[in-house]
Amino acid sequence: MLKAAGVGVGDEVVVPAFGNPEVAQAVSLTGAVPVFADIDPLSYCLDAAAVEAAVTTRTVAVIAVHRFGRSADIATLHQVGQRHGLLVLEQGESEAPYSEVGVRRERAAYLSTKLKGVRTPAGCDGHTFQQYVVRVPGNGRPDRDAFARAVKAKGVECSVPVKTPVHRMPEFRRDICLPETERAADETLALPIGGDMSRRELHRLVSACNALGGLLQPAF
Protein backbone atom coordinates (compact mmCIF):
# COMPACT_ATOMS: atom_id res chain seq x y z
CA MET A 1 0.00 0.00 0.00
CA LEU A 2 2.84 2.40 0.81
CA LYS A 3 4.64 1.68 -2.45
CA ALA A 4 1.39 2.01 -4.40
CA ALA A 5 0.91 5.45 -2.83
CA GLY A 6 4.37 6.51 -3.96
CA VAL A 7 5.94 6.59 -0.51
CA GLY A 8 9.71 6.39 -0.76
CA VAL A 9 13.11 7.86 -0.03
CA GLY A 10 13.01 11.18 1.80
CA ASP A 11 9.49 10.63 3.15
CA GLU A 12 8.41 10.13 6.75
CA VAL A 13 5.57 7.91 7.94
CA VAL A 14 4.13 8.20 11.46
CA VAL A 15 3.66 4.82 13.16
CA PRO A 16 3.10 3.49 16.70
CA ALA A 17 6.03 2.14 18.73
CA PHE A 18 3.73 0.05 20.93
CA GLY A 19 3.55 -3.25 19.10
CA ASN A 20 5.59 -5.43 16.79
CA PRO A 21 8.26 -3.97 14.46
CA GLU A 22 6.62 -5.13 11.22
CA VAL A 23 4.92 -1.80 10.49
CA ALA A 24 8.17 0.16 10.94
CA GLN A 25 9.98 -2.44 8.84
CA ALA A 26 7.44 -2.03 6.04
CA VAL A 27 8.06 1.72 6.05
CA SER A 28 11.82 1.19 5.92
CA LEU A 29 11.48 -1.21 2.97
CA THR A 30 10.05 1.65 0.90
CA GLY A 31 13.09 3.79 1.72
CA ALA A 32 11.01 6.09 3.93
CA VAL A 33 11.69 6.78 7.62
CA PRO A 34 9.32 5.55 10.37
CA VAL A 35 8.55 8.29 12.90
CA PHE A 36 7.13 7.08 16.21
CA ALA A 37 4.22 8.78 17.96
CA ASP A 38 2.72 8.06 21.36
CA ILE A 39 -0.46 6.08 22.05
CA ASP A 40 -3.74 6.76 23.78
CA PRO A 41 -3.51 5.01 27.18
CA LEU A 42 -7.01 3.49 26.94
CA SER A 43 -7.04 2.14 23.39
CA TYR A 44 -3.28 1.48 23.03
CA CYS A 45 -3.61 2.89 19.51
CA LEU A 46 -2.03 6.04 18.05
CA ASP A 47 -3.02 9.26 19.81
CA ALA A 48 -4.15 11.82 17.24
CA ALA A 49 -2.60 14.77 19.09
CA ALA A 50 0.73 12.95 19.31
CA VAL A 51 0.54 12.18 15.60
CA GLU A 52 -0.06 15.82 14.76
CA ALA A 53 2.89 16.85 16.95
CA ALA A 54 5.13 14.42 15.03
CA VAL A 55 4.24 15.79 11.59
CA THR A 56 6.99 17.59 9.67
CA THR A 57 7.28 18.90 6.11
CA ARG A 58 8.49 15.43 5.07
CA THR A 59 5.57 13.49 6.58
CA VAL A 60 3.42 11.85 3.93
CA ALA A 61 1.45 9.17 5.76
CA VAL A 62 0.19 7.73 9.04
CA ILE A 63 -0.34 4.04 9.78
CA ALA A 64 -2.87 3.35 12.53
CA VAL A 65 -2.76 -0.11 14.06
CA HIS A 66 -5.86 -1.46 15.78
CA ARG A 67 -4.78 -3.15 19.01
CA PHE A 68 -6.14 -6.03 21.15
CA GLY A 69 -9.58 -5.85 19.48
CA ARG A 70 -10.02 -2.14 19.97
CA SER A 71 -10.06 0.35 17.07
CA ALA A 72 -7.90 3.41 16.68
CA ASP A 73 -9.63 6.80 16.50
CA ILE A 74 -9.67 6.77 12.71
CA ALA A 75 -12.08 9.69 12.33
CA THR A 76 -9.79 12.05 14.24
CA LEU A 77 -6.70 10.71 12.50
CA HIS A 78 -8.35 11.42 9.14
CA GLN A 79 -8.95 14.99 10.29
CA VAL A 80 -5.24 15.30 11.07
CA GLY A 81 -4.49 13.78 7.67
CA GLN A 82 -6.73 16.27 5.90
CA ARG A 83 -5.12 19.23 7.66
CA HIS A 84 -1.64 18.15 6.63
CA GLY A 85 -2.30 16.34 3.35
CA LEU A 86 -1.39 12.90 4.73
CA LEU A 87 -2.39 9.43 3.65
CA VAL A 88 -4.00 7.55 6.58
CA LEU A 89 -3.66 3.77 6.44
CA GLU A 90 -4.98 1.13 8.82
CA GLN A 91 -3.62 -2.20 9.92
CA GLY A 92 -6.20 -4.43 11.54
CA GLU A 93 -6.09 -7.66 13.49
CA SER A 94 -7.50 -10.95 12.26
CA GLU A 95 -11.15 -11.04 13.20
CA ALA A 96 -12.53 -13.79 15.41
CA PRO A 97 -15.90 -15.37 14.47
CA TYR A 98 -18.85 -13.36 15.76
CA SER A 99 -19.92 -16.19 18.07
CA GLU A 100 -16.47 -16.20 19.68
CA VAL A 101 -16.52 -12.41 20.08
CA GLY A 102 -19.72 -12.73 22.08
CA VAL A 103 -18.14 -15.28 24.40
CA ARG A 104 -15.02 -13.14 24.82
CA ARG A 105 -17.11 -10.09 25.66
CA GLU A 106 -19.07 -12.06 28.23
CA ARG A 107 -15.89 -13.34 29.87
CA ALA A 108 -14.25 -9.93 29.73
CA ALA A 109 -17.27 -8.40 31.48
CA TYR A 110 -17.03 -11.06 34.17
CA LEU A 111 -13.31 -10.44 34.72
CA SER A 112 -13.76 -6.68 34.81
CA THR A 113 -16.32 -7.12 37.57
CA LYS A 114 -14.34 -9.63 39.64
CA LEU A 115 -10.66 -8.71 39.30
CA LYS A 116 -9.05 -6.62 42.03
CA GLY A 117 -5.66 -4.93 42.23
CA VAL A 118 -5.21 -4.64 38.48
CA ARG A 119 -6.53 -1.98 36.15
CA THR A 120 -9.09 -3.59 33.86
CA PRO A 121 -9.86 -2.31 30.33
CA ALA A 122 -11.89 0.92 30.26
CA GLY A 123 -14.17 2.36 27.59
CA CYS A 124 -14.96 -1.00 26.00
CA ASP A 125 -17.65 0.01 23.46
CA GLY A 126 -16.96 -1.95 20.28
CA HIS A 127 -14.11 -3.90 21.89
CA THR A 128 -13.86 -7.45 20.50
CA PHE A 129 -11.28 -8.57 23.08
CA GLN A 130 -8.81 -10.28 20.81
CA GLN A 131 -6.78 -10.03 24.01
CA TYR A 132 -7.92 -9.13 27.52
CA VAL A 133 -5.22 -6.72 28.63
CA VAL A 134 -4.95 -5.39 32.18
CA ARG A 135 -2.42 -3.05 33.75
CA VAL A 136 -0.35 -3.99 36.75
CA PRO A 137 0.82 -0.72 38.36
CA GLY A 138 4.54 -0.41 38.94
CA ASN A 139 4.79 1.18 42.39
CA GLY A 140 8.51 1.78 41.82
CA ARG A 141 9.39 -1.85 41.00
CA PRO A 142 8.57 -4.36 38.23
CA ASP A 143 5.31 -5.57 39.74
CA ARG A 144 3.92 -6.65 36.36
CA ASP A 145 6.68 -9.20 35.90
CA ALA A 146 6.45 -10.44 39.50
CA PHE A 147 2.67 -10.68 39.13
CA ALA A 148 2.99 -12.65 35.88
CA ARG A 149 5.41 -15.13 37.45
CA ALA A 150 3.16 -15.62 40.46
CA VAL A 151 0.05 -16.14 38.33
CA LYS A 152 1.86 -18.69 36.15
CA ALA A 153 3.00 -20.50 39.29
CA LYS A 154 -0.69 -20.93 40.13
CA GLY A 155 -1.29 -22.63 36.77
CA VAL A 156 -2.78 -19.65 34.91
CA GLU A 157 -1.26 -18.69 31.57
CA CYS A 158 -0.64 -15.03 30.82
CA SER A 159 1.67 -13.07 28.53
CA VAL A 160 3.30 -9.68 28.15
CA PRO A 161 1.83 -8.28 24.91
CA VAL A 162 4.65 -5.81 24.12
CA LYS A 163 7.96 -6.50 25.82
CA THR A 164 10.01 -3.79 24.09
CA PRO A 165 8.58 -0.76 22.27
CA VAL A 166 9.87 -0.49 18.71
CA HIS A 167 11.68 2.81 19.36
CA ARG A 168 13.81 0.95 21.95
CA MET A 169 14.81 -1.87 19.56
CA PRO A 170 18.34 -1.63 18.10
CA GLU A 171 17.12 -1.43 14.49
CA PHE A 172 14.86 1.55 15.18
CA ARG A 173 16.31 3.11 18.32
CA ARG A 174 15.30 6.75 18.75
CA ASP A 175 16.26 9.17 21.50
CA ILE A 176 12.67 10.21 22.13
CA CYS A 177 10.28 10.01 25.05
CA LEU A 178 6.93 8.30 24.47
CA PRO A 179 5.61 8.18 28.04
CA GLU A 180 2.31 6.37 27.42
CA THR A 181 3.98 3.81 25.16
CA GLU A 182 6.71 3.09 27.70
CA ARG A 183 4.27 2.95 30.60
CA ALA A 184 2.04 0.52 28.72
CA ALA A 185 5.01 -1.70 27.84
CA ASP A 186 5.97 -1.82 31.54
CA GLU A 187 2.48 -2.43 32.92
CA THR A 188 0.34 -4.42 30.47
CA LEU A 189 -0.43 -8.11 30.85
CA ALA A 190 -2.72 -10.24 28.66
CA LEU A 191 -4.93 -12.69 30.56
CA PRO A 192 -6.59 -15.68 28.85
CA ILE A 193 -10.26 -15.52 27.81
CA GLY A 194 -10.16 -17.94 24.86
CA GLY A 195 -13.15 -19.91 23.69
CA ASP A 196 -11.82 -23.17 25.12
CA MET A 197 -11.74 -21.90 28.73
CA SER A 198 -14.16 -23.52 31.11
CA ARG A 199 -16.08 -21.60 33.76
CA ARG A 200 -13.96 -23.33 36.38
CA GLU A 201 -10.76 -22.09 34.69
CA LEU A 202 -12.16 -18.57 34.60
CA HIS A 203 -12.89 -18.72 38.34
CA ARG A 204 -9.38 -20.04 38.95
CA LEU A 205 -7.95 -17.11 36.99
CA VAL A 206 -9.83 -14.62 39.17
CA SER A 207 -8.81 -16.40 42.38
CA ALA A 208 -5.15 -16.51 41.33
CA CYS A 209 -5.04 -12.83 40.42
CA ASN A 210 -6.97 -11.60 43.45
CA ALA A 211 -4.81 -13.63 45.82
CA LEU A 212 -1.85 -11.52 44.66
CA GLY A 213 -3.37 -8.17 45.52
CA GLY A 214 -0.70 -7.58 48.15
CA LEU A 215 1.91 -7.22 45.40
CA LEU A 216 0.21 -4.22 43.95
CA GLN A 217 -0.61 -0.63 44.62
CA PRO A 218 -4.28 0.41 44.16
CA ALA A 219 -5.31 0.62 40.52
CA PHE A 220 -6.16 4.31 40.82
UniProtKB/TrEMBL annotation:
Alphabetized Gene3D superfamilies for the sequence: Aspartate Aminotransferase, domain 1, Type I PLP-dependent aspartate aminotransferase-like (Major domain)
SUPFAM superfamilies cross-referenced by the UniProt entry: PLP-dependent transferases (SSF53383)
The keyword Phosphoprotein is annotated on this UniProt entry: no
One annotated GO molecular function: transaminase activity
One Pfam family named in its UniProt record: DegT_DnrJ_EryC1
Keywords from the UniProt entry: Aminotransferase, Pyridoxal phosphate, Transferase
Cofactor: pyridoxal 5'-phosphate
Transmembrane segments: none
Protein family: Belongs to the DegT/DnrJ/EryC1 family. L-glutamine:2-deoxy-scyllo-inosose/scyllo-inosose aminotransferase subfamily.
Name under which the protein is recorded: DegT/DnrJ/EryC1/StrS family aminotransferase
Organism annotation: Streptomyces neyagawaensis
